[in-house]
Design a protein that fits this description.
Blueprint lengths: L2 H13 L5 H4 L17 H7 L4 E6 L13 E5 L5 E4 L10 H8 L4 E6 L9 E3 L19 E4 L2 E4 L1 E3 L5 E3 L12 E8 L10 E5 L12 E6 L13 E5 L4 E2 L17 E9 L2 E8 L6 E6 L15 E4 L11 E10 L4 H14 L1 E2 L13 E6 L7 E5 L6 E5 L6 H6 L2 E5 L7 E5 L5 E6 L2 E6 L4 H6 L2 E5 L6 E5 L6 E5 L2 E5 L13 H4 L2 E4 L4
Length: 517
Amino acid sequence: MTTGQWVRRLRRTLMTAGATLALAAGVLTGTATPSQAAVQGPCDIYQGGGTPCVAAHSSTRALYGSYNGPLYQVKRASDGATKDIGVLGAGGYANAAAQDSFCAGTSCVITVIYDQSGKGNNLTQAPAGGAAGGPDNLANAVEAPVSVGGHKAYGVYIAPGTGYRDDHTNGIATGDQPEGMYAVLDGTHYDGGCCFDYGNAEANDHDTGNGHMEAIYFGDIKAWGYGTGNGPWVMADQENGLFSGAGTQFNANDPSVNDRFLTAIVKGAPNQWAIRAGDAQSGGLSTYYSGARPNAAGYNPMHKEGSIILGIGGDNSKGSAGTFYEGVMTSGYPSDATENAVQANVTAAGYSSASVAGNTLTPGSRVSLRATTTCCTGDYITHDDADNKAGITAVNSSSSSALKGDASWIVRAGLANSSCLTFESANDPGQFLRHYNFELYLSPDDGGAAFAQDATFCSGAGNSGTGFSFQSVNYPTKYLRHYDYTLYVASDGGSNAWDSSNSWKDDSSWLVDQPWS
């Protein structure tokens, strides 16, 4: 899409917002450059609506049209050095190339997510809390690649045990003061743990009672509130309860959502709060609840404490998973019209999971990996949902859609070495190929260094002279190899049966094909 086409698309989107037009006026002043997202960002729209941002966090783009500072900071494992990752230009997208260059040959974690509002509400590693010890893990910097406006960027990938916090904030609502918040999330990455939140929480990292939180929750836990279907749901964490509506349990107006990119909104004022959400790639927002506070003790009036959390509960409950791209908190209760204009800005930003890379083994691309040994040239690396083991299975055009999905993988930058590769299941997002006791399994990332190493493989020319071979980053003499239709990391000769030199070069060489799914 050309810059002119992009600008015309944004103009059309904003003009269809109806009542939001006045708020969006002036968005298209000036001429956009290829590195710019918009002359006006979400926080400019909130400011125009009388509810300014008091916290603005994103790893993908500027949230003000004039913002030209750092988005986040990364730290690399090789020497502990840190680097701020900024934008390509004022109001623009993240400079992912700067991260890629800095983290090449090693792994990086995200240490700081900077507040763009100027109030200094930066998110850093969450400390120990009442629910679980700490400090929490930091997010692997390469685990959530994404395209925004055709530019490569990275989200904040929260594996269980990972979390960020700021307990010493400036301008965040306390007590029963009004506030709003939105977040753009990966609608396919979630779990039933407690609690993947973004928003207002306790200042001492402990559960201090009902009504002491107000945060966006996303996941499929049903211990408190829930909505229709099997989840996941957007709900509000108000402490000692995830609320999908007025009551503490089922709310028929809160649907399951599965948008790849999701805009989630929670806002609250004295005896009034709301949940809204929509597809962050297109369309508007729906209101799932708008009404009075829960009638249980402690929620009216509220007792908000003004800390900010990401990926955890207010007491540092950290059994959750999710991916965060951008979000803000406001002073004051935003109007629906203001939020509609923000949604138009989000959809115009151009979030996409499409690869921005050129070859089949570039992070973001989808592939299927085919065996090259004479016996098995129609077999592909697959995972087995029955036991999570990985092996090779015959796949062809007549195979079931489930099997084709099991044979398809998303290439990711290596979790332990960004110059290498990690393979994520295409049909089980958040599950990765990793070795354990030398056998390959499909496993969720636990955020730890051992998992990152076990799930990282460095590609090179095929050991047989055909295709590619994939070397284990933590066992450099061992390569991905099929043996008796099971997948191992194996060396050319050794005490284990799967280390047999017989056919080792062929068994450890793979062709990269178009994905089956």
